[in-house]
Amino acid sequence: MLKGLIGKKIGMTQIFDEQGVSYPVTIIEAGPCYVTQVRNQERDGYAAIQLGFAEVHPKKISAGELGHLKASELPPLRFIREFRTKEAANIGDKVTVDAFAVGERVDVVGTSKGKGFAGAVKRHHFGGGKKTHGQSDRHRAPGSRSSGTTPGRVFKNARGAGHMGSDRVTVQALKVVLVDAERNLLGVNGAVPGGKGGLVVIKEARKQ
Length: 208
What we know:
A six-stranded antiparallel beta barrel has the order 1-2-11-10-7-12. It has two domains: 4-115 and 168-204, Elongation Factor Tu (Ef-tu), domain 3 (Beta Barrel), CATH 2.40.30.10; 117-164, no CATH class. It is mainly beta and 208 residues long. The chain starts with a strand and ends with a strand. The chain contains three helices and twelve strands. A hairpin with a 5-residue loop joins strand 1 and strand 2. It has helices at 41-44, 63-71, 120-124, and strands spanning 4-16, 22-30, 33-39, 48-55, 77-84, 94-95, 105-111, 116-118, 162-164, 168-180, 185-189, 199-204.
């Protein structure tokens, strides 16, 4: 069975174990997903399974995607993602949260919250300048970024102020603590990138 799902982040809560210890849990509405395409080594050069998630009105997706799904006799699906795997599957198969069990480890991929333009202290956790001894306006400044004659420029990839967030982020080896097949809910112990309603991809953990 394919160990992968596309889902939507619902929010965070907490659950308690038998000893009364609370654990932070992220709830994800995961699936149901449909197999929309199967790629193989002979034809495509790699093995993968393509999944679709979230049924929508046909006008809300492109004509190319609509044709791709109609050819497989599938409903219009808003999100389509590929999972590299050698597992066998057939177009039209339904994948649900039953693919995972409590106690398993998963990797969750999402898009982090956008923070806009941010300074070096917030963006890269710089220490800033001195807080005392006549300091007036260097409290949250990044400091020198290079030197004068040599090299006479700022090297590429020097850390500084700039756009923060809206990046693809993977959180690894989160423990599955809740599987609710009736409501298509998956609970993982820990935080997941992005805000409420954000799209996430759940895969089998690479580091068990």
